[in-house]
Amino acid sequence: MMYLGDFATGQTVYVYFNTFDSNDPSGSVTITGLAVTDIEIYKNGSVTQRSSDSGYTLLDTDGIDFDSITGVHGFSIDLSDNTDAGFFAAGGEYMVAVAGIVVDGADPVNFIAATFSIERTNGAIAQLKAMLDGNNRVDVGSWLGTAVTTSATTSLPEVDAKSISDNAAAADNVQANIGNLDAPISIAQADLDIITDTDGVILGAAGVDLIWDEPLTAAAHNVVNSAGRRLRTLEDFGVYEGGYIWIDTVNGTAGTTDFENGTVNNPVASIADAITLAASVGLPGFHFLPGSSVTLAASMDNYEFTGENYTVALGGQSISGCSFYNATITGNDDGTNTVAPKFVRCNFTDSTLGLHVLIACAMGGTTTGITLAEAGTYYWDACYSGVAGTGTPKVTFGAGNQNLNMRHWSGGIQIENMGASASTDNMSVEGFGQVVEGTCTAGTVAVRGAFTTSGITNLTLSDAARFDTANTIDANTVQISGSATAANNLEASALGIIPGTAQTGTLSTTVMTSDLTGYADDELIGRVVVWTGGTAAGQASEITDYASTNGTVTYNTITTAPVNNDTFVIV
Question: Are 336 and 374 contacting, i.e. CB atoms less than 8 angstroms apart?
Answer without folding.
Answer: yes
